[in-house]
Fold:
Amino acid sequence: MHKHIEELHRLGSKSERLIIGLMSGTSLDGLDVALCRIAGQGPDTSVDILNFETVPYTSDYRERVLSVFSIRNVDLQTVCLLNAWIGLHHGRTVNACLDRWGILATDIDLIASHGQTIYHCPKHLHQLPDYPSATLQIGDGDHLAHTVGVITCSDFRQKHLAAGGEGAPLAMYGDYLVFSSANENRVMLNIGGIANLTWLPSSLNSKDVLSTDVGTGNTLMDAFIQQHYDGMLFDADSEIARKGTVSTALLAALKAHKFFSRGFPKTIGPELFNLDYLDRAKQVSSTQALSSEDQLATLSQFSADSIVQAIRNITSQVDSFSIYSSGGGIHNPLLMDNIQQQFAETVIQTTDALNIDPDAKEAIVFAVLANECVAGKVVSEIGDAAIGAAVARPVSMGKISFPD
Structure:
């Protein structure tokens, strides 16, 4: 037997594994690095976070990625080079974290890398009958594995696509294993560039679990700030947006897209919700003269209303539920206020209340997916909850790269 196959067998047979989860989202603010101790697999999974930090990206990193990010026509050589370069960059970032934490790479069992999404293209968006849904994450797993010297599991979304899904959101499985509770119905709300949620009914019936994108999170607000305010990446503490007034005309135009009338589950990205989308909405609503403050206030309300409407639709058949939030959006106070004001009966908490750092949650989810890739039999037992909805059959996600 090849030594790598023997190593995978050994990893799969362990009662617990040290796994580093990596997440780099559409906000491009930094690489989330979460060192997790994961015991068991499937419904018996338990997670302890041993170390976590978000390593900020430099302006150089952001500019390189933005040169190909969510753009239909890009330089193919740049995409090719960035695939390797990001893998190396993320590997060196992991090495630096391990040095700071005083941990040897030889102590780590697996790295779980989401990679960097540069284009998300579900069929409902491209509308080309001869092509399936597709998504592309770059940051090569082999470069990462070789740089750190640790087996790496990456490119999780492709199997979901191959089985008939849209490649997102993949938080469903990790959320189901880590956060399900027989004591309450739970909405696990993650607000990054795009907002998504997982519905976890207290019945614990995996067939009733649902995960879906619901619309914009921070992506339009951040893009607006970066276009109109030199040197700013986001509206810190909602300082600018709080000075504005919501435009009902612009808000209605923003909400008019057919994406919002589509059933769940569904996915979307900045390929639709970008500054061109905002400009078209302003044109339709004759609101081109709105101040920057009013536009930001309206964009915040747009994200909040999309999230609230989705939660209300999904929870319409239950008497009570709890909302637990995570992601960069929790640091946007106006956005969170706009959501909370529409849920007077429910206090929105972060996943801190469940002993999971809300900034680390997505990185943890991919660590759990990697754990299942090497140890789990449960994908065939849990069914759709193992992979998200809208797939032809249960699958196991992740491609394995060896360090040598």
